[in-house]
Amino acid sequence: MQGHGLGSRNELSGTVHGAVVQTGVVYGGVHFGSEVSPVGQTPWELPPCGHVVDRVPELDALERHRARVMREKRHMLAAVSGLGGVGKTTLALRWLNTLRPHFPDGQLYADLGAQSTGGPVLPYEILGRFLRALGAPGQQVPADPAERAALYRSLTAGRRLVVLLDDAATAAQVRPLLPGGGNVTAVTSRSRLTGLAVDGCCAVHLEALAPEAAIELLADTLSDDRVTAEPEDARTLVELCAGLPLAVRVAGARLSARPRRRITTMVRALEEEHDRLEALAIDGDHNVRAALDVSYRVLPPSAARLYRLLGLHPGPEFATAAATAVSGAQDAAELLETLHDASLLSEVGEGRHRFHDLVRLHAIAMAQQDEPRAERERAIRRLADHYLASATRAEAVIDPQHRTMARDYGDGPVVTADVGHDAEAALDWLERELPNLMAVLRQSRAAGFPTVGWQLADALWPLFLRRKYYDDWHAAHDEGVAAARELGDIAAECRMLTSGGVGRLGSGDHDLALELFERAARLFEQRGDRLGRARTLNYRGLALQRLERLDEAAELFQRAAVELPACGDRRAGALARLNLADLALATGDPDGALEHGGAARDSLEETGDAYNAARADTLLGRSCLALRRVDQAGERFSAALVTLRGMAANYEIARAVGGLGEVAEQRGDARTARDHYREALDLYSSVGRSQSPDAESVRRRLHRAPSGEPED
Q1: Distance CA 682, CA 687 (A)
Q2: How far apart are the first and last CA of the chain?
Q3: Quick one: 369 exposed, middle or buried, by C-beta within 10 A (0-12, 13-18, 19+)?
Q4: Residues 438, 236, 256: CA angle, nearest 5 degrees
Q5: Residue 24: which pLDDT band, with cuts at 50, 70 and 90?
Q6: How far apart are CA 85 and CA 250, in angstroms?
Q7: pLDDT > 80? residue 22
Q8: What's the angle, vertex CA 186, arms to CA 3 and CA 172, rounded to 5?
């Protein structure tokens, strides 16, 4: 018998300090009321059921399945799985109790003890107790397991009853306990029990509660007006409980015992992340950590190790490749399945996994408790190397022209993710993993590998440039500068200053951008790096152009166009010519723009820079429009799109598509013009640039374009 410890194995209803607890009171062993039911007495063994919220879809799924199998006069079997404390038993009880009018011959209940320290209960023992509960005299209960099972099926075949098998370990443990006839059996388990699929099982997996439902559960636990009086604190509290019903009930029960205490007091207690699991306990009895401990203890050693090490992952979710990296285990995919089966992980997409917030805290605690410090440090470095190598691979796929600086990895093999084989797929990978990449970047200096900080920022360049994540761009390069300075790596610091300056330029902070570029120029000069300093001429010119210091900008672009090829960088010299073309067009000199832009495009093509050659085509198209050369403009915009659409460069695509809209408008094709303008605006929105000057220009043209249809 386990008594009433929440850390034992069930999630049944009861009271804690006067509050109804949805998940927690344990009915130790197997409870059947009297040892032998008199013949003719109907067993009603289901424990009381607490309040259930936000489980309508699950209850509907169970009822739909029951209605279908009952029409076919078959036995109904359902398995409810989920994390410890998520409310599996409460849901099963709620459903089974609604069936009482349809199943008047009784209710059987057994705790199968999957999480018990004594191990799962043998089906043989459960069958003996079930038979006695159904009225079989003790002396008539067979000793042979097969005979017990046969008698059990015979006694239940002519009845209408429901059976709850709580906390099952395996499908094999459940099968001998399935009654005969058209009865209903519900099974709860932290494992998914996929083996029951062959028995026609309806599988229901429970996740954490949505915020509104968790707030309702908190209000039900408190039974006063504190949730209404403190709605924001109530929402924060259930978010800190991560929607886990057990955690919400425990937090509510602690507050219920102190009616004068404000919810904000509990919020402050839980905001200390490292103490949150300890705070979610009542008198050492009803305890979230203990509920997770029992799931952890029964894991195979290799799965338990992966669980611990995944707690070191700094981001909110992760792919299978990251699990392989952090553990170094070639069978990580199989071990992840073990963690999923134990309901310690959730699947958030194909090959992607996530910890419940409180489970993550538990995994961290287990890593600190059971994993040597040296191994934790090695695992964190393996994970950082994985993300750095994968981001660098994506960078090479997207922008092979980007001058990738050397990467520094730790000891041992580096696991690189499959980032795709084209620019769109690689950009999508970077975008999907951006929260993890930023988390690794932010922790790199404190973890003892500052090189990863600036090198990850460097690898993220193509994502930032094309999809305009400016907040992350700024944060990454600020951290990169700090890491490079800590290392005393002037080359890395210059790289971070120039790349970060481009981000500041794009987000409109032109003065800071110019300051960053000038700092880089001074560092290059101190090192005697003529090429590096020459490259800053382009950047400084761009900042001056945005600051409307056009003569100064033109002078720097002209110097860059001469000095960069002389220093051996013909491509950067071509970019200077492209900048001169843009400046000429902006100052009303489309002929000068065509001259510089054409020369830039030719050089960029010759040096293999297809992306910037396409940008040059877009600029040449705009120059042709300014000169009323509509057909030539259309050719240039179309040529740009042929290249850009294969690069997932939505901002530059939007500029070319907007140009085609102007071409159609000048040809008198208003419908096509409007279609192009709408597409351009959608593309600007996709990269968070719907309020940019380019987007505003397209929006004005869309509203001015004649149309036979109502305005949007």
Answers
A1: 9
A2: 70
A3: exposed
A4: 145
A5: very low
A6: 10
A7: no
A8: 85
d(CA 326, CA 245): 31
Q: Give 563's contacts (C-beta < 8 A, 6+ positions apart).
A: 530, 534, 537, 573
Among candidate residues 74, 169, 69, 67, the one with its CA nearest the CA of residue 115: 169
- Burial track 659-679 (b if 16+ CB lie within 10 A, e otherwise): bbbbbbbeeeeeebbbebbeb
Which pLDDT tens digit goes with each residue over 609-646?
999 999 999 999 999 999 999 999 999 999 999 999 88
- What is the Cα–Cα distance from 171 to 633, expressed in whole angstroms? 69
Q: In what order do the strands lie in the sheet with 184-189?
A: 107-111, 162-166, 184-189, 76-82, 202-206
Integer Cα distance of 673 and 690 in angstroms: 18
> What residues form DSSP beta bridges with 13?
none
Taking CA atoms, 453 is separated from 227, 245, 289, 326, in Å, by: 43, 39, 34, 18
Structure tokens at 37: 């039911």
pTM of the predicted model, to two decimals?
0.70
Across 272-406, the runs of DSSP E, i.e. the strands, are 281-282, 286-287, 317-319, 346-349, 352-354
Question: Does 17 score more than 80 pLDDT?
Answer: no
Whole-number pLDDT of residue 41: 65
Closest CA to 621 of 664, 651, 650, 587: 664
The crossing angle, in degrees rounded to 10, of helices 373-398 and 423-447 is 150
Q: How confident is the model at residue 39 (pLDDT cuts 50, 70, 90)?
A: very low
